[in-house]
Amino acid sequence: MKWKLTAIATGLAFALSGGMAQAGGELNLFNWGNYTNPKLVEKFEKQTGIKIVITDYDDNDSALAKVKAGGHGFDMVVPSSNYVPIWIDEGLLLESRPDQMSNFKNLEARWQDTDWDPGRHYTVPWQWGSVGIMIDTAVYNGDINTSSIIFDPPPELVGKINVAPEMGDVMGTVLRYIGSEPCTNDKAMLKKARDVLLAAKPKWLSMEYGVIEKIAGGDLAASLYWNGASFRARLKNPNVHYGYPREGYSLWMDSVGILKDAKNVENAKTFMNFIMEPENAALISEFARYANGVKGSVKYMPEDMATATEVVIPKEFINSGHFVPPCPPDVQKIYTAIWTELQK
Amino acid sequence: MADINKLDQMAMPRRPFSVLTQTGFTEMAAICFVLLYAPLVPLVVYSFNAGVSLAFWEGFSFRWYVAAWNNEMVMDVTIRSIYLAITAATIATCLATMAALGTTRTKPYRGLTSIYAMINQPLMVPEIVTAVALLILFASIKAATDYHGMAYLIIAHTAFCIPFAYLPIRARLEGMDLTLETAAADLYATRWLTFRRVTLPLVWPGILAGLMLAFVISLDDVVITQLVKSAGQNTLPTYMLGQLRRSITPEVNAISSVLLAVSVAMVTIIFFLNRKTKQRQTVQ
Amino acid sequence: MVNTAANSAELSLGTTLQGGASAEQTARKQEVRRSILLSTPALIVLFCAASGPLLIMAVYSFLSAGPYGGIVWKFSSDGWASVVMQRDIFDDTLSIADAHVTILWRSVRLSLLTTFTCFVFGFPTAYFIATRRPERRNLWLFLITIPFWTNLLIRTFAIMELIRNQGVVNTFLTSFGFVEEPIQMLFTDFAVMVGMTYVYLPLMVLPIYASMERLDFRLVEAGYDLYATRFKVLKRIIVPLAKPGIIAGSILVFIPALGAFVTPRILGGGKHMMLGNLIGLQFGQGRNWPLGAALSLTLLVLVMIALLYYVRSAGKSGGSHG
Fold it and tell me: What φ, ψ does residue B50 adopt, rounded to 5°?
């Protein structure tokens, strides 16, 4: 009886997944949840006849674990920049040479070569952004471009602060705040970072996601959080502004790569080239409200994104932004110990 | 068994209270029901919000229901979740019933405690651990057989649903007396007939309770599903988790309200069907 | 069960010629065999998808952590050692891992509170449902479960919306002047307890109901006829008879609450980890799978001991009926 059920199950699964064989073939995209614009998918399917099947994940580490374990059935994945070197090191990504694709010239010059994917042999930008200070200026209208708002908050903000529970980003920001560097193995600096965090924690309210509603509604007044979310909060509550810590803030870029054991490599390469077109990149951006890396896409994006401080980094702060690298295992261990200490 | 309500009516006049009530119990139950449904009221109300917020009311609109209906992904994940929950809960309840019948009301023997421990083991380990272990186990099978269907999810869900179905059934069985079954045996009923006509109807409330628990538990699971699922097998909780990270719109309210409406409708239908059969029975 | 009954009937019909002992032995053997047979299908599924994978975890707990998650096939006792001991990251001294102890204690405390609250609300509710008219009982049962057909995340968010600073409860309290400032309820231990109680309530009600529905209320009536007070009837008759259900319900609430992950995260604000979060961290950014495996096996063993002890002692006082 179990086998019958399995057969029915399989049949239904096929039916539910919309059938397998189609004219142009298939593409299995493993992406963050709620991160792919359905309009983009529609456009791609219409243009190429390739059907995209999206599977979602909500965490870099679980995506990595899933693919590493094998037997996954995905073709493309969208890791964050600080994980891309790990994916490359572990031999999970195909050297697909996007830098040799026809639309590569559309990428902004600064993204054509990065520390974490030199020469862009493996990945193509999906979206990028920063981790900065999201703040309700009705509660505090002092200088918002400093991370001391989080680590040494002014009295009006105490008890109304949130910190995104992203270990890498928080550790990177606090290390820059005390004048050091992310992934340093200078123990004295790490100790100082830990002390700063532990001292600041009682002044925080929470360390979680889902902040947009709360800051628009007044439960929170400030948060260390992503720029796109801040943008969305501003649309609800115009007092919410976004600050770039001058001591140093983290940049991140989610990039699309092809998996080495992908079954639909040609379709994947087509998709990679497809999203380097300005119009298509604009579709990606309009969905989650982050910048993409493609020149000329701005004129296709919603107007308010073109001038927003959240999206376009003001000149004076550009140099303070750095991508967070993946830390070596021994430093990661110290990070985890500090993080556990912080959250216990 | 004597109808307790009839008993109550037969109560001696000297007794000032009904045998049914305990002090404050009805009040507690009422509070309980109110509290259970209270959080759902804003949920349903905001599903009709014209704005995009879960907290700021901006007018009445059906837009989120329309959006959810048109959103292929939402329909896909909802159907898959319900299908998975029904299948896993049904199988789990059948297996749990058999196991409960086997392990309750017997004198202890050497392996019994181990069986009991194994049945309840999924409860005792955080889901992430089972999830990672299943990922590793199934990954090698997927690589070897290239089979990427729903069977993995169904087996995984069935496994952790079993203890949830087992415990209410067991609790029910433990309170049952053996005399009825002994009587059936004395009347030369076969074991199967005894089971079907005597045991099963008596255990039924426990089985139903177990089935409902298992269904709800399966519908909710996110951690194990995240790691076990294959390409394209998104479920409702994993979809909502994605929403959590980016932005939650009242679309999820709309989906939940629909699920609520469907379950209320089902219950109403079943209730009326029951009444009809009862009426027909009393007429005869 | 039935077989034994049939066999003993046979015995009493005069199989005195056979040695009574060996006939009983065969009957007993058959009973044991049938018990195992009935349990086997469930055990097979469980072995494939629950206990078996746990063996994988047990093996992993003795390996070394991989540099980016996963494991390396090299023996190491670090995983198990880190459960109780920690090496201070800065001065290298060995000490008890107090972070783990704090987290464990918080989880146990909150789970016990949740179980107790679920019992306080669930027991009267189960009793209420069990004392309705027979045709109505299923209806009430469904009414209890319907809220849980929505999703866990949704339910948790619904609670969050109620108790946040601008939420329904606080708006009510402030606009009617009971308090001046909104009470900070969200992101506290209280919020986590409320959330978990809400989430796990049906797990307490349904088993107690299943047990109580079978209650022979003539016993209750007998108690009253003997001039017992209502409380005495409750204590001496109803509770002992509903005990299997209470035990089942408590297990179903306490143990999952210990390993809970999502609700403490959302309602607790992430500032304080519970056991589920700690273990989850090891498989995520913590990149220490062996420690995660060792922690969960430790939890498993502790819970199993408590569970078996409880069940054995309850079993002794339970006894058979009829």
Answer: -75, -25
